[in-house]
Amino acid sequence: MTWLDGLVGKAVVVKFGGNAMLNSDLVADFAEDISIMRKLGIGVVVVHGGGPQISAALDAVGIEPEFVDGLRVTTQQALPIIREVLMEEISKPLAALISETGENAIALNGITEDLFLAEVTRPDLGSVGEVFAVRDGFLRELLAKGIVPVISSIAPDEDGRLVNVNADLAAASVAAALEAQELIFLTDVDGLYENYSDKSSLRSTITVSELEELLPSLEKGMIPKVSAAITASFAGVRSVRIINGSISHSIQKLNENPNGFGTKVER
């Protein structure tokens, strides 16, 4: 039995991100991988970011990107632009690609059907926060119908104001709400390095407690991912993986070598 065979009938959340989203061939490969999972009977939810596309759109209107601890500083002026870019340039095209494989997919964000409720948790970053409620019943209905939700993480707060939520953290919230079997982060590197400058420090497995110890010393871009992995693990998600999404058909590669491709986070 393969790794994917063990996920049949289960929910899996896949966070799609990084520069792979700028490569049309890799995006098509990813859509095919998601289709393969669906055809096996796996309930798949895709959550995505869009850092490069957002930066380009904001630069076009004279808003310079600024990051703290790997998170984007976000003004209310920038939020409508971010929402539009994520939905029109990423969510809808990706859902269309998945649908072209013969599976059903739908583009959503945190506003759609009141999917997310968020709160600002980093006022030093502007309108940046975290999801604290997920309408999981709506997602479960979609999965039961064989539909792949493709979600961007702009979300409203209790007063209806938009909040920019890091996609890694949003993916962890979705995985926790669905009691997912797996949460998979696709990124631009081969997994988690204890020391990024030392490629021999790549970990094939790591415990949550080890992750917590490593967190302060990690590269800034990896901090949200690792924080999300820790959150999801404590929330009961069975397995969290960090794999290289810039490799063609990375999920199929994971299926071929589940213990040696990327990093697996264990309780």
Description of the molecule:
It is a single chain. This protein has 267 residues and is α/β, with parallel strands linked by helices. The chain has two domains: 38-165, Carbamate kinase; 180-267, Acetylglutamate kinase-like (Carbamate kinase, 3-Layer(aba) Sandwich). Helix content is 36%, strand content 26%. The chain is built from eight helices and 16 strands. The chain has helices at 24-40, 51-60, 79-100, 136-144, 167-178, 208-214, 223-234, 250-256, and strands at 11-16, 43-48, 67-68, 71-72, 104-109, 116-120, 128-134, 147-152, 154-156, 162-165, 182-187, 192-193, 202-203, 205-207, 239-244, 263-266. It has an eight-stranded mixed sheet, sandwiched between helices. A hairpin with an 8-residue loop joins strand 12 and strand 13 (202-203). Helix 1 crosses helix 3, helix 2 packs across helix 3 and helix 5 packs parallel to helix 7. The protein is globular, with a radius of gyration of 17 Å.
